[in-house]
Amino acid sequence: MIREMIEEWEEEYLSPYASLSKHSKGRDRAEEQCDIRPVYQRDRDRILHSKAFRRLKDKTQVFLTPEGAHYRTRLTHTLEVSQNARTIAKALRLNEDLVEAIALGHDLGHTPFGHAGERALNRVCPLGFSHHVQSVRIVELLEKGGTGLNLTWEVRDGILNHKTSTIPSTLEGKIVRLSDKIAYIYHDMDDAIRGKILTEKDVPKRIGKLLGMTARLRLDSFIHDIVSASSGKKDICMSPQVEEAMRELRKFMFVSVYQNNEVKKEEAKAERLVETLYQYFMTYPMRMSQEFIRLIEEKEEPTERVVCDYIASMTDTFAIAKYNELFIPDSWHR
Q1: What domains can be seen in the chain, in order of their start residue?
Q2: Whole-angstrom Cα distance, residue 103 to residue 158?
Q3: How many CB atoms within 10 Å of residue 332?
Q4: What's the rounded mean pLDDT across residues 285-309?
Q5: pTM to 2 decimals?
Q6: Tens-place pLDDT, residues 272-291
Q7: DSSP secondary structure string, 223-279?
Q8: Backbone angles phi, psi at 299, to 5 degrees
Q9: Which residues, in sequence order, are bridge partners of residue 152?
Q10: How many Å from the N-terminal Cα to the C-terminal Cα in the chain?
């Protein structure tokens, strides 16, 4: 079979540190193998065809309701993470299919309005809320009418542990974790320059000299450094000086962009909108979509968690429309 030929190729060509498809820890529910695709490629395809993935196109990355078509959304961020991660994985002879599956799935659980929505749900829900945990919940339970995507253990581990505070179990997961950081540093700065929040001259000179004087050159420096520093090692890392420069650049971005009053002026409104929707559907849970009501009635999931599921599944546009429908008089729309 074609799949077996691909698995043999992986064993012969990939690094001894790569996660081989034939050695996956498998799925929670056993199923017959595809005759063409190895397991991680199959997982990638399942994520790509999921409803949650399609919704990312209308979810905020950093800039709420930006004027212009060239600002990043959660979907374009995901695609850029995937591309960076695949470049690194190919150079290190690691498993590209696993890297791509993790990258495409890592932000499925993000709320409308980016981290503003995430903060709001985490604040009002007594069970807490975090997008990386929600991403796993989507692929394990919420997709396909409550049956989930039944992904492999390695893909779910990479999705769950893509944040800074945790460490994935595979090198492929570690690649996505780093690629996520360098992607948002690159594209958030690019968007901030487009939005006239920053100019290239604002970037600290020491960082510019080390990594490059443009966003494109800095991204290239990050990727080359990761490949060079990780080559031949059972780890994914950066050289000490570039890692320190990345931390310094992240601090600069937090002060100059993520906490910038101009950028954040609409976020308080977005948080209030999400909190108001949460309180409403906690009061009237039977007014959610039927698929979420079934989670409460048939699977006995906590109402607080299911209300978060419903709101987190909303796109920016749908959340605003739902708020208007529930709280704005019809005559005000004219």
Answers
A1: 23-333 (1.10.3210.10)
A2: 8
A3: 7
A4: 97
A5: 0.94
A6: 999 999 999 999 999 999 99
A7: HHHHHHHHTTSSS----HHHHHHHHHHHHHHIIIIIT-HHHHTTHHHHHHHHHHHHH
A8: -100, -5
A9: 27
A10: 62
